[in-house]
Structure formats: structure tokens, C-alpha cells
Design goal:
Distance between the termini of chain A: 37 Å
Strand order of the largest sheet of chain A: 6-9-10-3-11-12
Distance between the termini of chain B: 34 Å
Number of strands of chain A: 24
Chains: A alpha/beta, B alpha/beta, C mainly alpha
Structural class of chain B: alpha/beta
Bound molecules: adenosine-5'-triphosphate, magnesium ion
Structural class of chain A: alpha/beta
Helix content of chain B: 25-40%
Helix content of chain A: 25-40%
Oligomer: heterotetramer
């Protein structure tokens, strides 16, 4: 279907203000979006991007914010997500919004199941689901329970679901955060196709290379305000970052070259059994060492077993094989044992598993340090406060208010709280799982600086990251996993993305969107 | 197996009385979560064990009327000749009793009466209304000298017929008298609840002349509340049922002035009646060759004067 | 890296299969075990072989089904509620209130009585639904308060005495049988289960219930009317309780303000024994049906075996635990 | 963009402050309202001004505290459990079982009786804890089964009849008073609240409880022994119930197998009215204390006013709803 430019949707937002219990998340945002273009929305953590698109998507209903929203010149007011959907707006949310106990097909058509008189047409549903997934080239069985899929495939289901709405306005909030480069490229291609069909697209990402690759225009948010809108040509990374953080950043990656010290962490024949009783080992016979003052990165595709390797070492998953820290073996399946051996873990998802959102920054930091801030089982609050204040200072927590609940901090600052928790223990081995996922460039640079500090202190750092540039920029050594097996090693200096990808996808006959056994 | 009583609800003409054959006797009472019911059930079991000719099956797990009806239907599947039922509620168990009678199983109705006379062969029971009435009459006499007598009523479980009748009998007896009931609260046949309620009632009433409680078990808690408040000389109290503890307290003298018999032994009698009906026999001390239709036990007033006589029946 | 011998790996595969599928067979196996125990310990349970030949005890089979009906109907509504991660503690009291309400209209004939009873149940369900959705009260507390209030109302209406029901047609609902064999009560129960199953598995509404229980936020963002769905399940549970109330009062020809005390816990136990997760989104009505039958048969066996009330409580508690733990074992690793 | 006039913004600020802090003052306000109602409707409640002058009703004040004690002690343990997102339905039955167990040792003197009673409570708590942690049974079902089992055991031990307690020293625990004024019961209650508060707010264990309830996964990955923490809260709840059982049986001088029926719901209601979230991680023991006092005072006023039982149920249900809804309003946007 071809349309003339004039038929294309025109979405405008004027002076949007949104408050959360005292926090001004949006403070007068303007947005202008036309059909047939891809508008990238960028900004630091907490800049208000998700809040803005939650207003577009009806999650925060009219009345809960100030300002006006116009579609094709007509004021619109949504009472909830269903109104926005009815108006032709589809949103891919930052957190996967799927129901694990329903089938893939049911998830695809959630809220609009093919039905007659309220009775679901099962056959039609399954057939339509198959054709939708085929159309986008997503290799997912529509009949299986969603919960049995890996995160990557779930992400694909989420994307297919939004695409299939045939929306006039499509909003994607960090859709690529769980995807590898191959999958991301595929997604960007699909978006370019939709652009030519006249769909208006908002694309949110912290990965500026993606933004650069796909966007026609870039709108930058800072502290809940629109600070700049530029064309793709104008939007050089430097200018975008400058607008985002309001200052210049030095070199993002820092790497102190130090001779590596003694072996801190040694992993021998590590194996992690599958979660459901059937299936292949998630991690199978992995061995490596990390030295004092060395940063080792685990690279690999989604589902290659990187997280499981970290969890296995940390005792959070049952494992076989031997793990020693400073030469002392640490028991399998005992998190307490690992912590006692001075190992720390910064998890992949700070909200789900890193923080207790109701707790303050102070009590979150204290949580991993109860043994040192308490005597005879009674907490010394003074000591806890000192500890938290010291770390908040060292890591430049913003705002430096340690009595605020963790929930009220932005993503990057939440990540600093998680880091503080472990740094307070002065670990010998620090496991970092996607330490910069969903973290803005400013905070990213700070986190890299912290990692560099750790190296100088002689900490052994084992890091997982899906951002290959980051892996290359930070790691001294890169270990590439494929289906739970070590596929090869590369030195950090001089490694290229292509070299890593070749190892990560080796042994795969063809290279589909994701390569994993079902 | 065994003889099946002929006709609707058994009780054939006299003369064929034969106690040699084994008869299957059912028994059902509500769940034994209370001392009185516990005594009812153990009394019935003990009685059944005394007779070699009785195969005894019981079901006592019902915590409401419908559940008990279910249990009785299950019992009835076991080739019963007769059954003794102490219903959770008379009216509510009438349909199932009628069903059994229609199937030729003789029903002995204990205590709470079924609402249809064709739903049972024989009724044996105490007199709930009578308990209330006797208590009322007793207090009228005890408090006759007072110009205005302040009385508190601690009831059983709200919403069941036992409570209802014991209150009705009492209120009817004291109507228009010098007795004023200043508080009337349920104690759930439970000593703790009775105690708690009484503790507050004691706060709200500077002077109380007497307490009428619906149950001896519960009365113990009420007495304790009064004792804890140091006011046991101020008032008297009556129980109901005739528990051993109550008898002992009455004998000691003091606050526990009286109780009114509602003896669980009636269940043992009922089992025996069921046995006789199943055999087609009469009661040996009566001239009739058949078991009578109604046996009403007296809500005898037990006080310090006559407690020696009844002590042995305490449960 | 170690590789297993073909032999040991075959055994391991088999064990894995059993372990993985245990959950699907756990309930039928549990039911079979109970049926076996009942049959072996009592000749009155299902079949009597003592007199030579096989003598099926139809009487007791029908009896079990009748006994399953009330808790079963409550459990259907409860399944809907629990699948949304809610709970309905008020259904026991509704048995009392709706029965009493029906009985109060005893002079208007069976049709009016049934309508009044069922609508009273629905009304309490609607109140629960409003409290949970519009009032944002957690289900446990909203329905706990309604438990109290409904019981209070039942006592108020009756002046605390049981009300007799004399309408023959109404009583026939409880006592009557189709072709003199199949009690209406059982037919009504079967119809509600069938309807309930269809609703959950074949309709959009049913899938919405699973979605709301499985991931509330996702359901909302997909345009599913979460509040309306939640409201509806409480209404349905109230409706089921209203129907159960009519059956109870018809069978006992009395409406009692104390009826149904504690039934909510029996219904919840049946649903959970049937494998429905209290956290919502997981379980099936077939599972609930198993749970209801297991618990009813246990009670039936208790009576046939003349087991005392105290022992019944202890054994029942133990069986509930065993049934739930059997199912959890397989679930463990998820 | 519009900027407000200084005046209107000041009012708005004030409204915001009230809205934001309502939650902190909601409970004291509710308690005050109830005290006001009690004082206005009954001269026996707190002060009597009818005879000129102010006559404080110490008797009833002490009485309220005594009556708050049992539910209050249960509620302290229940707060621990609910803060981990669990629930303990067995405490009512423990009141019966532990009381009965203590009474059975009536010949061995008060010390032995107290120890037996308290340990029995602890034992049930330990069983609950094992079922929930090691057995992976959801708390609702684990403790529901224990409710049933403990009640059954209490009935078995006593043969369903109350057991009279004659040991004077034991009875004195319930009836005795320090300096002839302050009942020991109240002192024990106060001590448990103080200890409970300290444990939750000042110890590592308390922090672990909030962490487990707030985010189980994050707690585990921070090295907190989640299972051990969960186990401990059920043990504590059982212990509290054991202590409550001793007080109940001492005060009544009788141990009853039917004691405590439904107390678990009262305790849960008090905890939730006190603002503790049933989803764990949120709430305080001070809130629970308010909840206990509010519910106890309501009951006290009911009896002082001789309000009929049915009306009590209805009003109590309504007040629970009102109290919970008042607190939810402020919470709305989360
Ligand atoms: N539900 C909420 N309650 C309270 N505050 C909130 C809520 N959602 C967002 N905020 C706050 O609003 C601000 C903007 O958050 P938002 O999620 O929109 O940022 P973002 O730009 O999407 O950041 P990120 O890149 O980390 O996703 C932050 O300060 C955040 O803490
Ligand atoms: N809940 C689950 N049930 C069954 N299998 C799972 C589950 N979660 C993950 N898996 C499987 O485990 C393997 C590894 O999963 P996962 O996506 O966590 O790997 P990863 O290498 O850590 O990737 P990333 O860290 O990028 O998310 C995959 O084969 C995936 O299918
Ligand atoms: Mg965001
Ligand atoms: Mg991972």
C-alpha cells in the first residue's frame, strides 16, 4: 500500500509534565513525529524516555500528566493502554511484557485473540501466529509455552506482537537490549521497511551506533526536558552525547595496562545442568583463569551460557567442576561460601535481582555487608551510614542521598548502588553481568573508570557483556562461549568484532537469528 | 445383614423380638469439638460395645448440617438396620432422616427434634427450651428479694437452634419480672470467648446479681473472669449440661449456684433404643412390646441441695 | 567432559521423562490410590465382592458425587479467582446468606427463591469485585471482611434461628433425581464444571484470566481490561456460591445462618490440591475437579471406616500436604 | 508551561504534604476516632464524666490491654511471617494444642507446664517452617494443613473435653498483677512487642526478613540465607502462639480443644489493618500494634454497648475495610 505524505500520521506532544510522588520525571517535553520517519529518542538514564512513551502508550492515562497530545491535529486523551492501541499506537516496552504460562500464539494475540462471540478460534490463531512469525523470519514455534523460551526468543515474540498490530505509530523502548548484533540488524531492517510503508516510529536506545544507523531524526531528552532535536546528518555521536549529558566526555574506555598478578579465580570443568530436567548442559566443561588486576570478558550469543557461568561460579546455580579463589576451592551451591571467599556478583537485572527497591541506598549497600556492620547480630547504624556515605562518595552517586529508596534513583545510579554493595566488601573477584545494560553513556564512563580502579587494586574482574565494542574496549582477555562450551580466546587489545562473532557463531550450520538448541 | 424392620421406619408388632441376630446400628453426631458432644459420642460407642448383637458404625465429622447429612448418607450405604442421629440442626437434617425412614432404616432422633414426625421412629432428648426456662425460674426465686435484679446472659454459638431455644426459654420465664438482662453476648460454647466477653461486661456493669450461661464448659471461663476481677461474692452463676466440673463446683458452694441437666447419656440410650427397634423388641420395664415414640428427659435443676444425687452422671 | 554410557543415559532419559511428566499424571495417580484404598478397606465404597461376583455400589458412587457437588461448585468459582492470583474467603458465608435470602422468599415459590438465592450470591461477588478493583483492597482482606459481613447479615435476617423451607419444588432441587437415578444436584454440578471448563479454555475471557494471573502488567499493556476481568471472576465466584447455597438449603430444607462455615477453606484446599497456583496464571479446572474428588472420597472413606473426627482432621491435613508436595517436587526446578 | 501563584502553590504544597504523609498518620487518626467514639458512647470506656469531674476507668483500660494481649502476641509473630510474604493460618489451632499440652502436664508444676506449652507452639512453628522451606509447600496451604492437624491433635489429647487447670502458680500468670495493678499478661505482651520491634528494626535477622519479603532473588544473591530466614519466622510465629496459648489457658484456668478457633484471621486482620503488606517487605510492628488496638477497642465498645452479635460482625467487617482503604488511597500510584 502506498500513501501520499499527507496521509501519514502526525503525532505531537506539547509541554508534557509528569510527576511521581515528588519526582518530576517530565518537565515540559515537546515531541513531533510524522509517518514515514524513524525518530530516535535518546537521553541519560532517568531522562524520562520511558515515562514519555508510557504516556503515548496510555499506560499513564490522561489526567495523570499535564500538557497535550495531538494526533493529526486532534487532541487525544487515553484512558488506558487499550485506547492507545485502538488509536493505532503499539509499544514495545523496556521490560518484556509477556505471559509465561500462555502459548507463544496466545501471547502474540494477547488482547485481540481471534474469536467469534467470545469463543477463541484456536485453529485460526495458530495459523495466523505461524504466518506472522514467518513473515518476520522469527524461528519460534507458536504452540509452545512462552515460558520455555530463552530471553532472546521472548524478545522476538514481543517484537512480532507489536509489529503485527500494523500500528500507525510504533514505539520501541530499548528493544535491542537483549539482542545480539545479528538480531539487532535484522530488527533495524524490518523497521526501515515499515518506514517506507508510512509508519511513524520512535526508537529508544542507549546504543548510539544503532541510532546512527537507523534514525532520520534524533530527539534528546535531559532531566525531563527536550534539549535538542537534530537530523541524522547533524547527529554526530559527539553532539548527541554533548546534548545528553550537557558536557564533554573524555575517552569512554579506559584501560590501565598492568602486568597481571597471581591467579585469583580458577575455574576447571565447570558444568551447569539444564533447568528443566531435559536438554543440554547450559555450561559444559568450561575452564579458565583470571589473574589479579585482569579484566576477562565472556562473550557469546544470547543463550550461550554466559550468565550461567557466572551464577555457577557464584553458587547461585547448581554446578559440577571446581572453582578456586586464591587457591582455595569454594563449595558448590553456596552463595555464602562464595561471598566468604571474597567473590561478588553484579547481576544482569538490577531491578529483578540486584536491588531491593523498597530499601534505601544505605540499606541496600548494607545488605551485602551485614557481617561487617553488625556485632552480635545487632546492626550498628552509624557504621552502616558511614559505609554507605563513603561508597556514595567514591562512586559519585547522584543524588548523593543515601536515605532515598533505591526505586527513586535512575538506572545508572541504581547500578552504582549495586556496585557499592560489593565494592564495600573489597572483593578479590568481581563478577559483572552486563554491568552497563540500560546505562547511559555518562554513567557508563563512570562504571568503566571504576572497573579500571579495581584493576589497580588487584581485583580479578570477570565480565559479561553483549556490547562487543565495550568488550574490546575494556577487557584484557576475551573468552568466547558457544552453546555452553568455550569456543576460543582472544586478547582484548586488537580484537575485532568480526573475530569475536566468528567464534561465537562457529559450528552453526546456517546463521539464523539465534543459534541455540530447542 | 440382619433383620430389616418392616414398614415405614421399623417397629414391627410385638412378639417377634429376637436379640440373637446381629443388627447394624449407625450413629451420627456433629463433629466432637466440644465436651458435651465428646461425651455424647463416647457414650454411644461405649454402649454399643456392651452389646454383642450390635455392629456399630458411626460418622461424627460434620461441622455443619449439610456435611452431617452427607456423612449420614454415606453411613446409610452400609446396610444399616437402624440409626441414632443427633442432628446439627433438627430441621436441616429432616430430609435425610426422612429418606432413611423411607428406605426402611429406623431413625432414633436424639435431642434436636426433626421437623417432621414421620422422619423418626423415636425421639429421645433433653429440653433446651426447658433449660432456659428452668434457669429463669431458678434465678427468679434466688433473686426474688431484689427490687431490680441485674442479670447477664452468656449465650452459645449465634445462629443455631440450641442457643435460640435456651435464650427463648429464659426470656419467657423472666418476662415481666424484676430481672433486667443488661448484656446478652455469645460465648460460642467456648471458655475463652466466654471469659473475654465477661471481662468487658464486668467493666460496663458495676453491679451484677447473676449470670446465666448456656453451657458448663463455657461457664468455667466466665467464672474465671469474675474471679480474676475479684467479684465472685457479688453474683451467682448458672451453667447448663451437668458436667462433672460443674457438679464439683456446685458442691463446693460459692458462685456456681446451679446447672440444668442435659445429659449426654441420652446418646447411649438412643443406641440401645435403635438396637431394640431393629430387633423389634420393646423396653423391658415397660408393658408395651414396642419402644415408645417420645422420651423427653427433664432439664432437672441441680443445686447444692441435690447435687449428691446427680454427681454420678456428671460428664 | 564426561559422557555417560548408552545404558546409563537411557535410564537417565527415562527417569527424566517420568520426572518431567509426573506432574501430568500425579493427580490421576493420587486419585487411583485413594480409590484403591477405599475399595480395599470397604465393601461399601465402589464394589462389593464379598458375596461372590462384582456388586457395584451405585448408591455410594452417586452419594460421592452429590457430596462433591457443593464444594465442587464453590471450587469452580474459586479456580477462576485464584487463577487471577486472587482469593475468595467469603464463599462459606455466602452459602449462609444466600440460603437465608432464598428461604425468606419462601412464599413466592421455587423460581423466585432460586433467583433470590443466586442473585444474593452474585451481589456479594459483585461487592467483592468492587472492593478489589475499584477499592484496591487486597483480595484476602476484602473477602475476609465480606465473610464477616455476610455472616452478620445472615444472622440479622433470620434473627439467628434456622429458617425452614417448605416449598416442595424448591426441596426437589436438592432431593430429586433424573430418571430416579441421577440427582439434579449432580447434573447441576456437571453442567457448571463443563461451563467453567469451556469458559476458561475456549473463550477470550478465559485466556484473559490466565493473562491477568500470569502477568498483570503485560495483560494491561496488551489492552486487556484487567479490572473488568478481576471484577468478573469475583462475580462468578459469588454466583457459584449462590448456586451452591440454593443446593445446600434445598437439600436440608432449611436455611441456616451457620451454614457453610469453613467451606471456603475446603474449596481452596481442593483447588490447590488440584494443582492451581495461588500466585495465579497456572492450573486447570480438570485439576480442580481431581482435587474435589480426592478430598470428597477421603471424607467418604473416613465415614465408611468409622474414623473419629480428630483422626479425620489429622489424616486430612496430612493428605493435603502429601498431594501438594507430590506436585511440587516436579515443579521444583522451574 | 504555567506557573502557579505563590498562594495557590502554598496550598498545593500543603495538600501534597498531607497526601504524602497521610499514610504515616492514618493509623493514629483511626485509633483516635475510635477512642473518641468509645468515650462519647460509653462512660465505662476510658473516662467517666457523668458524676462530675473526670473519672478515669483504669479497670477498662487494663481490660483492653489484657484483651489485646493474646491477639497482639499472635500478631507480632504474624508480622514477622507476613513481612516475608508468608502467612500463618495455624496459630489459632496452636492456641488449642499448646494449651492442652500444657494442661496435660498439670501435675508437674507451672514451670514445666509453661515450658511444654511454649515448646509445643514452637514445634508446630518448626513444622510449618520445614514444610515451607524444605517441603516447598506454599505457606497458605502448609499452615492450613497444620491448622487442621493441630486442631485434630488437640481433640485427640483431650477427647474433646476441656481440661481444668488447678495449678495456682500457672493460673497466676493469667490472673496475677504486678503491684496489684498491672496484669502480668500485659507485661508479657509489652515485652514481646518490645523484643519483636528490636528484632525487626535493630538486628541483622530483622533486616534479612525485610530483604526476603522485599525481593527474594536479590536477597539470595546478596548472600542472605533465605530459607533459614523463612524457617525462622514460622518458628517465631509458632513460639508466639505457644506463649499466647499459655496466657489463654492460664487466664481461663482451662485448656480447651476448641480454643482459638478463628484467631488466625483476627491476627491477620490486625496486621493488615496496621499497614503491613501481604506481599511482604513492607510494614512495621508499630503499625501492627495500632491494628491490634483498633480491633480490640472496637470489640470492647461492642460489648460495652451490648451490640448484638450480628451487628458486630457487620460493623467489624466495615471497619476493617475502611481502615485498609484509607491506607491504600495514598499508595495508589505505585
Ligand atoms: N513508576 C514510577 N514511580 C516513581 N518514579 C518513577 C516511576 N517511573 C519512573 N520514575 C522516575 O522518573 C524518572 C524518569 O524515568 P524513566 O524510566 O522515564 O527514564 P528513562 O529515560 O526511560 O531511563 P532508562 O534509560 O534508565 O530507561 C526517573 O527519575 C525515575 O526514577
Ligand atoms: N527459564 C529457563 N528454562 C529453560 N531454559 C532456559 C531458561 N532460561 C534460559 N534457558 C536456556 O539456558 C540457556 C542460556 O540462557 P541465557 O539466555 O540466560 O544465556 P546467556 O548466555 O546468559 O545470555 P544473556 O546473558 O545474554 O542473557 C539457553 O539455552 C536458554 O534457552
Ligand atoms: Mg527507560
Ligand atoms: Mg545472561
Amino acid at each position: 500500500m502506498t500513501m501520499s505524505q499527507a496521509d501519514f500520521t502526525h503525532l505531537e506532544m506539547r509541554g508534557i509534565v509528569k510527576q511521581f510522588a515528588g519526582v518530576r520525571a517530565l518537565d515540559g517535553v515537546d515531541l513531533d513525529l510524522r509517518g514515514g520517519e524513524i525518530l530516535a529518542l535518546v537521553g541519560e538514564n532517568g531522562a524520562g524516555k520511558s515515562t514519555l512513551i508510557n504516556i503515548i502508550g496510555g499506560r499513564w492515562p490522561a489526567g495523570s500528566y499535564e500538557g497535550e497530545m495531538l494526533m493529526d491535529g486532534q487532541p487525544i486523551a487515553f484512558g488506558g493502554p487499550h485506547d492507545a492501541l485502538a488509536a493505532g499506537i503499539a509499544v514495545i516496552h523496556q521490560e518484556l511484557q509477556l505471559v509465561p504460562d500462555l502459548s507463544v500464539a496466545e501471547n502474540l494475540f494477547l488482547g485481540r485473540l481471534p474469536a467469534r462471540r467470545g469463543i477463541v478460534n484456536q485453529r485460526a490463531m495458530r495459523a495466523q501466529a505461524r504466518s506472522v512469525l514467518d513473515r518476520y523470519g522469527f524461528d519460534v514455534d507458536p504452540a509452545v509455552r512462552l515460558g520455555s523460551l530463552s530471553i532472546a526468543r521472548r524478545q522476538l515474540v514481543e517484537i512480532a506482537r507489536a509489529l503485527d498490530r500494523h500500528a500507525r505509530v510504533l514505539v520501541l523502548d530499548e528493544p535491542s537490549s537483549a539482542l545480539t548484533d545479528v538480531e539487532t540488524d535484522r530488527l533495524l531492517d524490518i523497521l526501515r521497511g515499515l518506514r517506507t510503508e508510512g509508519v511513524a516510529i520512535v526508537y529508544i536506545s542507549h546504543k548510539l551506533d544503532e541510532v546512527h544507523a537507523v534514525a532520520d531524526r534524533v530527539t534528546v531528552l535531559r532531566d525531563g526536558r527536550t534539549v535538542a532535536t537534530m537530523t541524522a546528518a547533524e547527529a554526530t555521536p559527539g553532539k548527541v552525547v554533548q546534548a545528553m549529558v550537557g558536557r564533554d566526555l573524555g575517552d569512554l574506555y579506559q584501560r590501565a595496562d598492568r602486568p597481571a598478578g597471581d591467579v585469583r579465580l580458577a575455574v576447571r570443568d565447570l558444568a551447569v545442568p539444564p533447568r528443566a530436567r531435559a536438554g543440554r548442559q547450559l555450561v559444559d566443561g568450561v575452564s579458565f583463569e583470571v589473574h589479579a588486576g585482569e579484566v576477562v570478558a565472556l562473550a557469546g550469543l544470547l543463550g550461550s551460557g554466559r550468565t550461567e557461568t557466572l551464577l555457577g561460579i557464584f553458587g547461585a546455580l547448581p554446578r559440577d567442576g571446581e572453582v578456586t579463589v586464591n587457591g582455595n576451592p569454594i563449595p558448590s551451591g553456596s552463595i555464602e561460601g562464595a561471598i566468604r571467599a571474597r567473590v561478588g556478583l553484579v547481576t544482569e537485572d538490577r531491578k529483578e535481582s540486584g536491588l531491593i527497591l523498597e530499601f534505601t541506598a544505605r540499606t541496600n549497600i548494607g545488605l551485602a555487608n551485614l557481617d561487617t556492620i553488625a556485632s552480635a547480630g545487632i546492626i550498628d547504624r552509624g557504621r552502616e551510614r558511614q559505609l554507605a556515605e563513603r561508597l556514595a562518595g567514591e562512586l559519585a552517586l547522584r543524588p548523593p542521598l543515601i536515605e532515598r529508596p533505591a526505586r527513586s534513583f535512575s538506572g545508572g545510579n541504581q547500578q552504582k548502588i549495586v556496585l557499592s554493595k560489593w565494592l564495600a566488601r573489597e572483593p578479590d573477584v568481581l563478577l559483572l553481568d552486563e554491568p552497563t545494560r540500560g546505562v547511559d553513556v555518562g554513567a557508563k564512563a563512570e562504571i568503566f573508570a571504576i572497573i579500571d580502579q579495581l584493576k589497580l587494586r588487584g581485583v580479578a574482574v570477570l565480565m559479561v557483556s553483549s556490547d562487543l565494542l565495550e568488550v574490546i574496549g575494556v577487557a584484557d582477555r576475551i573468552i568466547v562461549l558457544h552453546e555452553g562450551v568455550v569456543e576460543g580466546q582472544l586478547p582484548g587489545r586488537g580484537a575485532t568484532q568480526e573475530a569475536i562473532m566468528e567464534l561465537a557463531t562457529r559450528a552453526a550450520e546456517s546463521v539464523p537469528v539465534i543459534t541455540e538448541a530447542t | 445383614g440382619g433383620t430389616t424392620p418392616s414398614g415405614s421406619g421399623g417397629g414391627t408388632a410385638g412378639g417377634e423380638c429376637d436379640e440373637s441376630e446381629t443388627v447394624t446400628i449407625g450413629f451420627s453426631a456433629p463433629a466432637a469439638d466440644h465436651g458435651w458432644l465428646g461425651a455424647v459420642i463416647s457414650g454411644a460407642e461405649e454402649e454399643a460395645a456392651l452389646h454383642d448383637d450390635v455392629e456399630f458404625r458411626s460418622a461424627n465429622g460434620g461441622t455443619d448440617a449439610d456435611q452431617q447429612a452427607n456423612n449420614i448418607r454415606t453411613l446409610a450405604e452400609q446396610d444399616l438396620d437402624a440409626i441414632a442421629i443427633l442432628p446439627y440442626d433438627g430441621a436441616a437434617l429432616t430430609p435425610v432422616a426422612q429418606e432413611l425412614m423411607d428406605r426402611g432404616i429406623a431413625v432414633i432422633n436424639i435431642d434436636r427434634e426433626f421437623s417432621s414426625p414421620t422422619a423418626f421412629r423415636t425421639w429421645i432428648g433433653g429440653d433446651n427450651y426447658g433449660i432456659g426456662r428452668s434457669a429463669g425460674l431458678f434465678l427468679l426465686e434466688e433473686l426474688a428479694d431484689l427490687e431490680e435484679a441485674i442479670v447477664v446472659e452468656i449465650q452459645g454459638i449465634a445462629g443455631i437452634s440450641v442457643t435460640d431455644l435456651r435464650t427463648a426459654g429464659f426470656m419467657d420465664a423472666i418476662e415481666g419480672s424484676n430481672i433486667t438482662v443488661v448484656a446478652s453476648q455469645p460465648g460460642d460454647f467456648n471458655a475463652d470467648t466466654g471469659r473475654e466477653v465477661m471481662e468487658t461486661i464486668l467493666q460496663a456493669n458495676e453491679h451484677i446479681d447473676a449470670v446465666y450461661t448456656h453451657d458448663d464448659d463455657m461457664a468455667e471461663g466466665v467464672v474465671q473472669a469474675i474471679r480474676n476481677a475479684g467479684r465472685e461474692d457479688e453474683m451467682i452463676l448458672t451453667g447448663a449440661g451437668g458436667s462433672a466440673n460443674a457438679m464439683a463446683a456446685i458442691q463446693e458452694g460459692g458462685i456456681y449456684a446451679a446447672t440444668f441437666l442435659y445429659n449426654p447419656i441420652m446418646a447411649a440410650s438412643a443406641v440401645n433404643l435403635a438396637r431394640l427397634v431393629a430387633h423389634g423388641c420393646g423396653m423391658s420395664d415397660l408393658a408395651e412390646s414396642q419402644v415408645p415414640q417420645r422420651i423427653q428427659l427433664d432439664a432437672t435443676t441441680v443445686t447444692q441441695e441435690n447435687v449428691d444425687q446427680y454427681e454420678q452422671y456428671g460428664f | 567432559m564426561t559422557t555417560a554410557t548408552p545404558e546409563s543415559s537411557r535410564i537417565r532419559d527415562w527417569l527424566r521423562f517420568v520426572a518431567a511428566n509426573w506432574r501430568s499424571y500425579g493427580l490421576p495417580i493420587a486419585l487411583l490410590v485413594i480409590i484403591l484404598i477405599g475399595t480395599l478397606t470397604s465393601r461399601f465404597f465402589l464394589v462389593d465382592t464379598t458375596e461372590g461376583g462384582i456388586n457395584i455400589r451405585w448408591g455410594n458412587i452417586v452419594n460421592i458425587l452429590v457430596q462433591a457437588s457443593v464444594i465442587g461448585i464453590l471450587a469452580v468459582g474459586m479456580t477462576y479467582v485464584i487463577l487471577t492470583a486472587g482469593i475468595d474467603l467469603s464463599v462459606g458465608s455466602v452459602i449462609a446468606l444466600a440460603g437465608v435470602a432464598a428461604a425468606t422468599f419462601g412464599d413466592f415459590g421455587a423460581v423466585v427463591m432460586v433467583i433470590v438465592g443466586v442473585l444474593t450470591g452474585l451481589a456479594v461477588g459483585v461487592a467483592n469485585g468492587l472492593l478489589v478493583t475499584w477499592g484496591r483492597v487486597v483480595p484476602f482482606i476484602a473477602t475476609l471482611a465480606m465473610l464477616t459481613i455476610a455472616r452478620g447479615l445472615a444472622l440479622t435476617i433470620t434473627g439467628a434461628s434456622p429458617v425452614r423451607i417448605t416449598d416442595e419444588a424448591y426441596i426437589a432441587i436438592g432431593a430429586g433425581q433424573l430418571f430416579g437415578v441421577l440427582p439434579y444436584v449432580v447434573i447441576i454440578f456437571a453442567a457448571i464444571v463443563a461451563l467453567g471448563w469451556f469458559g476458561l479454555n475456549r473463550t477470550v475471557f478465559g485466556r484473559q484470566i490466565y493473562a491477568v494471573g500470569g502477568n498483570r502488567v503485560a495483560a494491561r499493556l496488551s489492552g486487556i481490561p484487567v479490572r473488568r476481568t478481576e471484577f468478573a471472576v469475583y462475580a462468578i465466584s459469588g454466583l457459584c456460591a449462590g448456586i451452591a447455597a440454593v443446593l445446600v438449603s434445598a437439600r436440608t430444607a432449611t436455611a441456616q445462618p451457620s451454614a457453610g462455615t469453613g467451606s471456603e477453606l475446603d474449596a481452596i484446599a481442593a483447588v490447590v490440591v488440584g494443582g492451581v497456583s495461588l500466585f495465579g496464571g497456572r492450573g486447570s479446572l480438570i485439576g480442580t475437579l481431581y482435587g474435589v474428588l480426592i478430598l470428597t472420597m477421603i471424607t467418604n472413606i473416613f465415614v465408611l471406616q468409622n474414623i473419629s473426627y480428630d483422626a479425620q482432621l489429622i489424616i486430612k491435613g496430612a493428605i493435603i500436604l502429601a498431594a501438594v508436595m507430590l506436585q511440587r517436587r516436579a515443579d521444583q526446578e522451574e
